[in-house]
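[Discussion] Sanity-checking designs against the backbone

I'm trying to build intuition for which residues belong where. Below is a structure token string of 201 positions. I'd appreciate it if someone posts a full sequence so I can compare it with mine line by line.
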């Protein structure tokens, strides 16, 4: 069972449809017993970091997420859900994240339009990574964000260039995350989720 975490942030039905199309049967839930039994968790998110972290705290899901990761089961973060996995964010202040990954969330201070909204191509940092199995360098995915991960390149799988190198896919052990929306990225996003399904097997 794969659970999309419901903490009242984000378009969860869109995420569910994307994973379901990739053959990953999901349920949307905030039920602790269901989450404890989950084979993998999906952490989506849209909006501001501070609001999302407060919603996560209020939901009571944080201890469940941390226990899930400690038990070596997979966690997949999407967009703001990816950013929440890091140590802290400087979006309109200074706020602590889940600290499952090393790095900060910094403003996308570039001479380009911000928010970064639209299709951008992927460059591979780890050429033979299993998540990249069904896609190619230069494939396009869909981004919507004003802040980016300033993190540990040891975890970097793929990135896009948007005035600077923006981490697009990261993995550390059983934690995987994408800055873009795979569920909104057409066949390329579907292929990434297909590869994720194979990693889970």
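Best answer:
Here's mine. Compare freely.
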């Amino acid at each position: 069972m794969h659970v999309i975490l419901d903490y009242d942030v984000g378009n969860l039905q869109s995420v569910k449809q994307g994973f379901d199309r990739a053959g990953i049967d999901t349920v949307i839930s905030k039920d602790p017993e269901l989450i404890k039994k989950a084979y993998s968790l999906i952490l989506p998110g849209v909006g501001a970091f501070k609001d999302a972290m407060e919603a996560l705290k209020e939901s009571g899901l944080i201890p469940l997420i941390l226990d899930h990761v400690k038990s070596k089961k997979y966690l997949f973060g999407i967009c703001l859900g990816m950013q929440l996995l890091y140590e802290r964010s400087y979006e309109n202040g200074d706020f602590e994240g889940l600290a499952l990954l090393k790095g900060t969330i910094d403003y996308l201070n570039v001479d380009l339009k911000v928010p970064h909204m639209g299709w951008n191509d992927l460059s591979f940092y780890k050429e033979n990574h299993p998540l990249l199995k069904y896609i190619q360098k230069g494939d396009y995915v869909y981004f919507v964000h004003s802040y980016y991960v300033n993190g540990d390149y040891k975890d970097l799988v793929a990135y896009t260039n948007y005035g600077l190198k923006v981490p697009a896919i990261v993995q550390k052990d059983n934690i995987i995350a994408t800055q873009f929306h795979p569920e909104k990225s057409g066949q390329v996003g579907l292929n990434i989720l297909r590869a994720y399904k194979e990693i889970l097997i």
